[in-house]
Amino acid sequence: MPFMMKRRQLLMTASAATAAALAPRRAFAQQTLDVEMLNRHPEERINMVFYPDIIVAQPGDTLRFIPTDRGHNTVSVDGMLPDGADDWRGGINEEVELNLQVPGFYGYVCQPHVSLAMAGMIVVEGDGKMDNYEAAKSVSHRPRRLQDKFDALFEQIEADGLAAT
Length: 165
Fold this sequence. Notes:
The chain has helices at 2-22, 133-137, 144-159, and strands at residues 32-40, 47-51, 54-57, 62-66, 75-76, 96-99, 104-109, 119-124. The protein is globular and about 35 Å long. It is an alpha/beta fold. A hairpin with a 6-residue loop joins strand 1 (32-40) and strand 2 (47-51).
C-alpha cells in the first residue's frame, strides 16, 4: 500500500505540471514601474528631476510616482495625452498610481518646479502609439527652460527609436 500512495502522488504531480505547461501564457506580464520625484539626480548634477524622466510601459502596466523627496507632485500636461487617456493631478508629497491602458505619449510636470523644468514623458507601446506623437511634440511650453526640457526628451525618444511604429 505505501508504494501505491507514492505512485498516486507522482501521477497527480505530473498531471498538474503538464496542465501548467500547456496553459496559454501572456506575451508581457503586467508590471509596476516606479518614477521617483527627487531634489537631485542620483548620477548627474541636475536639480529637481523625475527619475527616470522617460519611461516605457506596456498597456496594463501601473506607473507609480513616488515622492522620494518632499515638495513635489505630478500633473499631466494638457495636449500631451493620447485620446482616451485620463489626465491626473497629484497633491504635493502624494504617491500617484496610473494604470496605463492607452498607447501613446504622455507628458507631465511637477507643478511647483515647472520653472526649473521638472518634467518627464511616458511612452506606452502598442497599436496607435504614434497617434498623438506630433500633437504632443508640438505643445508650446512656458518658461523657455521647460520647452528646452521637452525638446530634449523628444530628441532622446527619437534617438532611442521610441518614435517608430
